[in-house]
Amino acid sequence: MLKALLLVVVLAVAAAAGLGAGYVMWGQVPNWYAADVAKLGQGPDNDLIRYGRDLIVNTPSHIGKSATNPALRFAGNDLACQSCHLNAGLQPFAAPFVSTFATFPMLVDDQVLTLTDRINGCMRRSMNGKDLPPESREMEALIAYMKFVGTGTPEGVRVAGMGLKSIKPPTLPPDARRGQEAYTQLCASCHKEDGQGELRPSPAIGYSIPPLWGDASFNASAGMAKTEYAASYIHDNMPFGINYQAPVLTVQQAWDVAAFIISKPHPVATPATVSPLD
Ligand code: HEC
Ligand code: HEC
Q1: What is the pLDDT of residues 152-210, one digit of tens each?
Q2: What is the pLDDT of residue 27?
Q3: Superfamily assignment of 176-263 in CATH?
Q4: pLDDT per position as a tens digit, 21-56
Q5: For residue range 80-117, what is the model confidence (pLDDT) as tens digits?
Q6: What is each CA distance from 176 to 97, 215, 224, 250, 252, in whole angstroms?
Q7: CATH topology for 2-54+83-149?
Q8: Does the beta carbon of 257 sit less than 6 angstroms from any atom of ligand 2?
């Protein structure tokens, strides 16, 4: 799956290069990462977009394991989409949503992957739950928001900053024991020594700091459970507040700490949570 997606990205970048000098070059206008729902007017279409953003930021209250409406408890944990898709999907190299609408459906391993399928891939694995019904208002809202944040982006092209930035291979094989030392030093202040993060104060649902392992975390089939994905994500986005332009961890530390987190228990992906694409 990783290989196929990377191939698509490479092709997209090659296609983009043909569009005109500077068009998608980093640092050039336009900045694709500045969509702002606050600028939207009234009306049902914009309400749907706003609901989509709220689903990404406050996922657990709407569709989480402890959601207010029991009929909508589709996720099996109380993570938010934003726990990983930082800044409501507008953080470069934190798997942002800017080119998402314009690049789905996508061909992955010779299968057509629709945006609905891709969202439900995260519902099953990262959210350790079950599919959102394709016709639901929640699915429509997520897609409407992704379409909105991609307004004006080139069709079929992944703009710079999409996905995760590929990380250099480690010098030494990733080592969970070394990773634990880095974790204690650089991560435990927020995610805690037991990896369980911090709940929002009640009555709010969900986390101010998300858990990294254990029953409340992403399952063993999730993208974040792959060492390369986790290393890349962590290198460019953690400790929270940094970005890919000023990483804090060395490449080796990122691989080691990823190995440490993944060596800890995660929910087993049951047939219901394993995506047919993984
Ligand atoms: C535990 C982390 C995590 C959580 C939580 C999570 N995702 Fe993801 N998601 C990922 C990773 C990792 C990728 C893959 C990035 C890549 O392929 O480069 C991804 C990819 C995606 C993509 C594909 C984007 C693209 O353009 O390639 C969509 C859409 C998506 N997620 C939607 C969601 C939604 C909606 C939620 C909440 C219901 C969610 N995700 C929750 C980690 C997560
Ligand atoms: C300053 C507090 C802070 C520090 C330090 C920090 N994180 Fe995070 N981390 C967060 C927050 C907050 C989020 C979720 C962002 C959101 O909800 O907007 C997050 C999200 C994550 C995620 C994705 C979500 C999930 O549940 O899997 C991973 C993986 C992660 N952090 C790993 C690390 C690692 C490894 C370190 C140490 C190198 C680290 N973090 C240091 C605050 C922190």
Answers
A1: 999 999 999 999 999 999 999 999 999 999 999 999 999 999 999 999 999 999 999 99
A2: 52
A3: Cytochrome c-like domain (1.10.760.10)
A4: 344 555 555 899 999 999 999 999 999 999 999 999
A5: 999 999 999 999 999 999 999 999 999 999 999 999 99
A6: 31, 20, 16, 15, 11
A7: Cytochrome Bc1 Complex; Chain D, domain 2 (1.10.760)
A8: yes
Local confidence band at 141 (pLDDT 50, 70, 90 cut-offs): very high
CATH fold match for the domains 2-54+83-149 and 176-263: yes
Instruction: Place 144 in a pLDDT band, splitting at 50, 70 and 90.
Output: very high
* Cα-to-centroid distance, 237 and ligand 2 (Å): 8
Which protein residues are within 6 Å of ligand 1, measured from CB?
5, 59, 79, 81, 83-85, 95, 100, 118-119, 122-123, 126-127, 142, 163-164, 218, 222-224, 229
The domain ranges of the chain are 2-54+83-149, 176-263
C-alpha 29 – ligand 1 centre gap (Å) = 26
Judge if pTM exceeds 0.90.
yes
